[in-house]
Amino acid sequence: MTDMISRPSLKAGMIGIGMIFDETYRPFFEDTHAAGLFDRRFGDVEVPLTAVASRTGRRAEAYREAAGEKIASFESFHGEGATAALLAAAPDFVCVATPDDRHFEISRDILTAGCHLLVEKPSVLSLDQLDELTSLARQHEVLAKIVYHKLLDPDHKKLRTLYADGVLRHVNSGYCTLLEPKQISGDQFSEWITGRNPGTYVAVHYIKLIDFSFPGRLKTVTATGQRGLVGAADGPTWDSTQLRMIYEYESGREAAFDIHTSWVTPDNFPGYVEQEVQFRFDNGLWNGHSRKRGVECTVEDQTPISIKNSMNNHYNGTFLEPWGERSQRGYGIETIERFVRELAWLEHSEEGTRGERLATLASLAYNDLAADRQTVATVQALEAILEHQAAGEPDCVVRVNDPAGGLVLYRPGSETPEVLYAGTV
Ligand SMILES: NC(=O)c1ccc[n+]([C@@H]2O[C@H](COP(=O)([O-])OP(=O)(O)OC[C@H]3O[C@@H](n4cnc5c(N)ncnc54)[C@H](O)[C@@H]3O)[C@@H](O)[C@H]2O)c1
Hints:
The protein contains eleven helices and 19 strands. It is of the alpha/beta class. The strands form four sheets. The protein has a nine-stranded mixed beta sheet with strand order 14-13-9-12-11-10-17-18-19. A hairpin with a 2-residue loop joins strand 17 and strand 18. Bound molecules: nicotinamide-adenine-dinucleotide.
């Protein structure tokens, strides 16, 4: 793991090079290619992107062409066997940004090959898959981490800080909404959207925010949704979803959270996405609006289509820095850098033993796969409830750690529960 001038390195592989690669991974790899990654605890580490894999290879070639000197040379694999070919190139870690129902098999192959894993949210779609991946990570003594960049949003960090410090006390209820434009469902994801819903893909940000910020025990999941725009009104593809989670806290008191998502908002909406949260506490109220953070900009002939009126400059913005450089920065990129810094500390630091460093990193609930249980349970429940609704059985309820099993679906009018996961969530 050393290069020509004997710097330690972490070779990266990237599977899936679509929208999120372009927004967050690409700027991270380009910045690190130019400046390296430094920390006193692990030194000056190279992080070359050495191999990418995708379905057709077209976007990889377009990127190679566009990037020029901004990135070192990398191999590109596509089609059947692309993951295996990428793993044969022996990367140290691999990032997975494929559609959400293609995370599991690819992640399993990565961990089986003994490589560290960084997977986009939602990590996986069922607890059985989660169990298999966490057990592989332990067996191979590697990291298995997830990208939940909203946990690094400064507003969400402040919310969690006030709650953790007892300034805001006992959360009673809350709502979150994230609405994506039609362009996402109609164009961006058209290749894989059949049978999918916007809840699994985007509500998961807020499922995790709630689970991580207000740690309690997930008890019940209910959900419903609407169809008829992206697919047929009686088909399996969803325009919008509404999810409710009930949590119980150590005090025995409960809280309810509603998360509304859609990917059929008009494309001429004034922001890229609509994102709003409200949480109610015993002694306070938190209102957050990620879009209306204070900027409203109008440009003739451009807003609100090619440029939006309101923009989230905290997530990922392109800037002309005061000192003249062009940059792309924000918490979307910071999340990836943070993972690589943790990995560099694991592999290239001499603090304690590697086993101790691995245990420390595995205990970080914000990104470790093993800490994603209640989030994955909610996603699995949502998918099962929507599947039943599409099959003509609406209004199912999923209960967590119930006498019948870990994740149990109840259908109105039926005596027989369906056990989605037998083990304890
Ligand atoms: N962190 C975030 O807020 C955020 C935002 C957008 C997307 N995402 C996540 O990133 C993932 C990808 O989303 P996107 O918007 O970049 O999607 P996209 O459709 O733009 O890109 C998907 C990429 O995966 C590749 N791919 C598909 N199937 C593959 C396979 N079997 N093997 C190898 N490559 C394959 C495609 O070729 C393409 O390069 C999803 O899991 C999504 O939830 C996260």
